[in-house]
Amino acid sequence: MKLSRRQLLKTVSFSALVVGIAPRVAFSAPNALRSVRTGLQPGGKTRLVIETSARPSYDLSYGDKQLIVNLSNTSGSSSVQPKLANGTMIKRVTQIQDGTKLQVSCALSGLIDAIDKKQIMILEPNGDNDYRLVIDFASGTGRGINGTATTATATKNEQKTETKTANKTQRIIVIDPGHGGKDPGCTGKAGTQEKTVVLSVAKKLKNKLDSNGYKTYLTRSNDTFLKLADRAEFAEKKHADLFISLHANANPSRDMKGYSIYTLSEKASDEEAQKLADSENAADKIDVDGFEQFSKDIRVALSALQQRAVAELSEEYANGCAKCMNRASIEQQKGPAVRHAPFAVLRSTVPGALIELGHLSNKKEEKLLKSDSHQNKLVDAIVKSVNAYDFDV
Hints:
Strands 14-13-15-18-16-17 form a six-stranded mixed β-sheet, sandwiched between helices. Strands 2-9-10-6-5 form a five-stranded mixed β-sheet, with no helix packed on it. Strands 7-3-4-12-11 form a five-stranded mixed β-sheet. It is an alpha/beta fold and 393 residues long. It folds into two domains: 5-141, Immunoglobulin-like (Sandwich); 164-388, Zn-dependent exopeptidases (Aminopeptidase, 3-Layer(aba) Sandwich). It contains nine helices and 18 strands.
């Protein structure tokens, strides 16, 4: 199975270097250092990831071939050993405890420019990870660090436009209309079948993403039954950057309504998520054998680091999609918008999410899900979520 470049970069081998820690004052801080690691990003960029127990408050300072990350109210630990990837600009990482401030000092192989805020992000806790401060940078001239302006070949707006266009033309999206053929999915009281609704939305979504410059594929373009294994494998073969599986929900309570979004997890986030995963996974048992073997193969093929990286990327997309849905005033199902469960269709090295567009079991929402206007509203929100997604995270 061929992995995309982004996924391979996530699994770059780590070399063990000893961290130096020089505590100056012992104290109890509300935040604590959990881990430090580096990696390579597209374009030869170096990525520094600093994981802390609480949301970090930070600022950057620079020295001669040195990057210093100052973390407020944070305690270091001699047990934290940096995991440094081969080929990055970071040669060594040292901790220096200065009262309530922890300095994470990085010795670099060359000069860098002042790091733009757009190259820095804080990721929320996810799975086994706590808060992560993520900093990307590349070699430079050292300009912009001591008050000298950096050179720019284009205006900020031009750079944004060029970057956005370049990203989109390089990205491959696989859209998966759930169910199909002998598997209709759930059925509304008025007879609306899930397989029909999601195929209609998927085709509209493909057209809109195509017009936005993405390369998109449908796992099915007609009323065809596909094994869940084949859907995941299809995304692999297309070397997709993102996998979006579309579904419609049903609930014993006719009052239940609203969208929800799911990412892959071996342990469901709640009982309802587990029941939904069981229901969706059961579709693969309609006169079909061999799924368990595929699942086992996928598990063997994925390293622990790959699984974690894909989970993080999927989580980032799902959270962004939920925000776009809410901004579009699309009703959210009660409870968390983003949940986690062992969905078979998401077992892949491709980041992805399963979107339940609404509830066919709700009379009002069944009518909405059949309407072109509401389908277009859903499509517009999903397209915005794809545009907003940082594929290089």
